[in-house]
Amino acid sequence: MSLQAKQERRRKFAEDLAKRQGKDVEVIVRENALPCLPAKSLLKFRVVCKDWCQLIATPFFTHNQSHKFRKMSGLFHQSQMGGLAPAFIPVDVAAYGVPDPSLSFLPVPVNIKSSTNGLLLCQGQTGEKRYYVCNPVNMQWKVLPKQTCDHGSDPAVVLVFEPSVLNFSADYKVVCAIASVEFPDATEFEIYSSEKNSWKLSREICFNQKVVPTSGLYVDKTVYWQSSRAILAFDPISEHAVTHGAYASYRSCYIEMNGQLCYGSLAGKKLSVYPANLYQNTMPMNMYGSKPKLDVVVDILSPGNTSGARDYMGNREGAQVLPSVSGDVLVFKTGGTITSYNICTKQFKDLHKSESGQDYFNGRFFAYVNSLVSVSSI
């Protein structure tokens, strides 16, 4: 179906819905379509008319958009070179973006540590190295109180934020896996709650477990870290931890697809994604029934791929699957090229391509959702 045909189909659907509900098409669009759009598009739509401008600025609309819009919008990149500012790589330049990708609106230079549902968790590069939670769209931010435990030079910290349609003033948490002081080779957890604005040390202790600091990921109400040939899963509500025998190797990572933790691997000319199968174990956390089967295999050298990723065989040293969310778009890096693959349209697209072919992206990547969520209201 062509783009014009799709637009005509959507127009007729809106007209039919308006007739059934006895409303104008503009009202239907305003109530049903606008909250499903990314933040950058909504900020542009404020100039359409005074009513739209006032609507988009209301706290209720902001709350509704943060709950409904969950699509992969791009990647924040944090270089491992000390002192360098973050950068943003959008999946679609026209649709997604932030006004200040370097996060210079924060009071100090920072390193990004985690990204969840439109919010970023950052840490100051100098001084006390305090944590900051911010939304790069509206440039709102909050500095967290100083933690009571030693998080180390490279903290294994994850931001936990789940927009809820029922809870207007949503809560977020920050979970850090720390090395136990009392027990050798054990991991404990310190948790910050925005509701209480304080840190507390959990009673949960995992023995014979040391996590990889840069591997933290929040998926489906659970925080995951990679440990020694295993996954450490932590429920921030019950504060219960479980170890699973799954492992992500070189050139692969754990990603989120449709609310499920998946394993993305780049080997040969194939990009493969499949569930981590954690629910096969006896695990009391988040057992909401069977999960959908998610198996995706992409041929990078397929005839339909005209992106720079076709040079993959000559850039094997820089090959790597990158984090992603929502399940619509997969992203991978091959040498100096960052490429996206849309699972629905089966199209490849270069998001960044180095002219020299050298790999300058040697740090961490964070999947990002373009949300209007207000930090000040949380």
Q: Could you say which overall geometry the principal axes of the C-alpha atoms support?
A: globular
Oligomer: single chain
CATH topology of the largest domain: Neuraminidase
**Total number of helices:** 5
Total number of beta strands: 23
CATH architecture descriptor name of the largest domain:
6 Propeller
Mean pLDDT across the residues is: 83
Distance between the termini: 42 Å
How many structural domains?
Answer: 2
Report the sheet with the most strands, covering strand number, pairing sense and barrel closure. 4 strands, antiparallel
* Uncertain ranges: 280-292
Radius of gyration: 21 Å
Strand adjacency order, main sheet: 3-4-5-6
* Portion in helices: 10-25%
In short:
Helices cover about 15% and strands about 35% of the residues. The protein has helices spanning about 5-20, 25-35, 40-45, 50-55, 60-70, and strands at about 75-80, 85-90, 110-115, 120-125, 130-135, 140-145, 155-160, 170-180, 185-195, 200-205, 215-220, 220-225, 230-235, 240-245, 250-255, 260-265, 270-275, 295-300, 320, 330-335, 335-340, 345-355, 365-370.
Describe the protein's architecture and organization.
The protein is mainly β and 378 residues long. It has two domains: 3-66, no CATH class; 67-368, 6 Propeller (Neuraminidase), CATH 2.120.10. Helix content is 14%, strand content 35%. The protein is built from five helices and 23 strands. Strands 3-4-5-6 form a four-stranded antiparallel beta sheet, with no helix packed on it. A four-stranded antiparallel beta sheet has the order 7-8-9-10, with no helix packed on it. Strands 11-12-13-14 form a four-stranded antiparallel beta sheet, with no helix packed on it. A hairpin with a 6-residue loop joins strand 4 and strand 5. Helix 1 (3-21) crosses helix 2 (25-33). The longest helix is centred in the first third of the chain and has 19 residues, at 3-21. The protein is globular and about 65 Å long.
